[in-house]
Target: Type II secretion system F family protein
Amino acid sequence: MTRQTVAAGCLVAAAVLALSIGTRTDAVRRLRGLGGRDGSVGRARPAWWPDSIRLGSGLFGLAVLVVLGGWSGLLGGVVAAVAADRGLRRIEPPAARERRLREAADLPLAADLLAAAMRAGASVDRSVLAVADALGGPLADRLGRVGRTLLLGGGPQEAWSHLLPVPGAERLAGAALRSSNSGAALAGALTRLADDLRADRSTAAEAAARRAGVLIVLPLGLCFLPAFILAGLVPVIVAVLGDVL
Model:
């Protein structure tokens, strides 16, 4: 068995492992969704995720070691394994991506519901708990922690920090902290915040649609330009050179 065969086998095994990671993550997410009442996803990274990454990185490093051989192959394999490990750890699991997108999508509605509850006369902690119970989903879990922390006497900064991992929630937490420090009404700020979040989401969607249009045209250009050169310019250049030479 040649070195190239062993290296190719290691690379194929690493690719199959990477595909199985994504498939298994989706399966775990679906099972957890069936088990919960709101279909929320579980932990962002399953317990087997680091082991799978280490195994894939080791296979990649082994492929480099087999191809190069000797001390240079050993050094190159170690460097390749470390680089692959760091690169794979930066990849966001499908479950974490779905959770992040769903939390960001539910945030404007949560701000509107909080504003409505506070205008009805409920306290901040009761409003947050009521919205968490009515909203459902992964954002409801974070809001529930915020409400319970406030209800048990925790400080506003500690309580609202549970929302900081959600994209855009730092503005909601900042408005809540300013209200707790100055005593200003929070309902109006939350209503304006919800409108701003929806506007930002619409702008981001429009920008993504424009980028998609450019990316769709790019493969067509990459295919058309070589064909145009080969079919249009090359015969003319060959004919001119034939006449000149």
User: Anything to note?
Assistant: Residues 52-90 form one domain. The chain has nine helices and no strands. Confidence is low (pLDDT under 50) at residues 22-46.
